[in-house]
Amino acid sequence: MSIQHLLEDFATDSANGAPFATEREDTELLDSFEQGYKAGWEDAVRAKSEEQSNISSELARTLQDLSFTYHEAHAALLAEIAPVVEHAIMAVVPEIARHSFGLNVAEEITRLASQGDATDVLLHVSAQDLCAVEDALPDPAALPTRIEIDETLLPGQVRLSFDHRERKIDVTEIVANIGEAFSAFVQQAKKETSHG
Q1: Taking residues 97-115, what's their average pLDDT?
Q2: Which of 15, 107, 132, 139 lies most in the core, judged by the most C-beta atoms within 10 Å?
Q3: Which residue range forms the structural domain that includes residue 47?
Q4: Tell me: the pLDDT tens digits for 4-19?
């Protein structure tokens, strides 16, 4: 018994019993396949291009949001921390200046001596600064030095008189300048943040 009726005949089209397509039909089928493939490829390229465009615009929006967030965070941090830092500076710097006042005067006298700008120095100090200045002067001083109390001077101020010239040291002015410099820094940072 033959089993041929169970096996498919590949020499003919099994649907209508006709032989397979001719060469012309093969070419048409191949062209059709190629056109479909090309159209699919163009669709894929277009979809990829649109996806990249969407990703780029989303990235640009995200970066812009991050930029605003950074500037907002910077401004908020500056607003919170600036008063604390300013308070700390204005609490600590005057105390440091007061403790180093006598040393600054002694350093100025040593500088005058090294430059040969003076032969002797007269120091005018407030009564409150007398001990600090006396204790800070080296023994012997770099230049012959006399100290006189001047009631017109405030604590933290000294006037050096030498060879018909005068020089003033004023730590209160230095502290005020530090405070002004910090305020200017904060104002500039706020301006840059608001324009950023």
Answers
A1: 79
A2: 132
A3: 21-71
A4: 777 776 665 555 555 5
Q: How many domains does the chain have?
A: 2
Mean pLDDT, range 94-108, rounded to an integer:
79
Enumerate residues 6+ apart whose C-beta is below 8 A from 166: 159, 160
Cβ atoms 115, 107 nearer than 8 A:
no
Q: How many CA atoms lie within 13 A of 88 on its CB side?
A: 5
Beta-strand ranges (E) seen in 1-131 are 121-125
pLDDT of residue 112: 78
Residues 117 and 164 in one domain: yes
Strand intervals (E) in the chain: 121-125, 145-149, 157-162, 165-170
- From CA 174, how far away is CA 63, in angstroms rounded? 44
In the DSSP assignment, the letter for residue 144 is -
DSSP letter at 3? -
- Residue 136's φ and ψ, nearest 5 degrees, are -80, -20
Q: 21 pairs with which residues across the strands?
A: none
Q: Could you read off the pLDDT of 40-87 as tens digits, one per residue? A: 888 888 888 888 888 888 888 887 777 667 777 777 777 788 888 787
In a domain, residue 58? The reply is yes
Distance of CA 181 to the CA centre of its chain: 18
Averaged confidence pLDDT in the chain: 79
